[in-house]
Write a structure and sequence with these properties.
single chain, 127 residues, mainly beta, 4-stranded mixed sheet, two-stranded antiparallel sheet, 2 helices, 8 strands, globular
């Protein structure tokens, strides 16, 4: 019997990209990765859980910073190979750099420019 997890087209590493979006403003907060366990934990707990490719382990968003993401909906795209989490961002900071979202660099005149301010110094968040 196939489960809802089997319907996701996982890549050769057993991962799928996940876009995380604020459920009210629709602002994209981050792009991350899920494995089966992380997606199952998202569904079971109602909190965003990702697969950290750099640390090679499950990562519960906010486990160190306290900036959890409470899931409002989990969606799968038309090709079944990308997930969208609509969340409420606790504390208003989604990025480890202390910004509201991770997409704070914008291409301007052929260079990446920082266009979003730090809300809270990461040294304060992760001390």
């Amino acid at each position: 019997m196939s489960t809802w997890l089997d319907q996701v087209k996982w890549n050769t590493d057993g991962l799928a990209p996940v876009i995380t979006q604020d459920y009210k403003s629709k602002q994209v907060l981050t792009l991350a990765w899920l494995n089966r366990e992380a997606l199952q934990l998202c569904a079971d707990t109602g909190h965003a859980v990702y697969w950290s490719r750099s640390r090679q382990k499950i990562w519960h968003k906010g486990e160190q910073s306290g900036h959890q993401q409470q899931i409002k909906s989990i969606r799968l795209d038309c090709d079944n190979d990308a997930v969208l989490l609509e969340v409420e961002q606790v504390g208003g900071i989604a990025c480890h750099t202390g910004r509201v979202h991770c997409f704070f660099q914008q291409l301007q005149d052929g260079e990446w420019q920082t266009v979003e301010q730090v809300v809270k110094d990461p040294k304060e968040i992760y001390s």
